[in-house]
Amino acid sequence: xxxxxxxxxxxxxxxxxxxxxxxxxxxxxxxxxxxxxxxxxxxxxxxxxxxxxxxxxxxxxxxxxxxxxxxxxxxxxxxxxxxxxxxxxxxxxxxxxxxxxxxxxxxxxxxxxxxxxxxxxxxxxxxxxxxxxxxxxxxxxxxxxxxxxxxxxxxxxxxxxxxxxxxxxxxxxxxxxxxxxxxxxxxxxxxxxxxxxxxxxxxxxxxxxxxxxxxxxxxxxxxxxxxxxxxxxxxxxxxxxxxxxxxxxxxxxxxxxxxxxxxxxxxxxxxxxxxxxx
Length: 278
Description:
Helices cover 43% and strands 19% of the residues. It is built from eleven helices and twelve strands.
């Protein structure tokens, strides 16, 4: 997955405008404009890196003469104390870009590290880990890129990618069968239909209506195993709802195809990285 450079630049511009506004009172009044300095990013935890080049881009956008040496790349595993990148340029630029660059790389590395952890838990099973649309507004491409960097997969990117019937859609449309039947008359041949189900009876109705993907919402691993037997390969099964790293392996061993985890993006812990300037 390659991030659109214009999107990345716009995100950085927005973040810098938010942080610096019209000036940096501390740096501009304290540091001579021509003073030169060196900086380095260092990992202060063990995990998976993501957003290294984006962090570096913050400084080169502030001043294109900033020299960057990337020591670790997206997807690399790092240990506490590992240097990630080095910078050389105007001290004022290094100081102004520090927080924005750290915000981006820490968050993206946190997502990648969590995704990698979950992906490793389900190794050896049929299941894959996927994210959800529970992302921070404006940062979805960064977060979904980080999920893939960590070794997990992306769910639909937005509402245009697929038809997904959640409980409110189903209730508003008059039931699972009615909703799928109506959608089939309007969607194109490339669009798949996913249905959220809460019981085995709803699962059976979704199968009879020929849903492409069926979500097993907040079901126990034991119930999911029964759902796998009932489905017998007729649809892709996605487990979702309240899944933690403690229950993840049992869910994967039920035989489902996909396990979607909102926590990968909506409540992930930032990865600890520090910037040191001399």
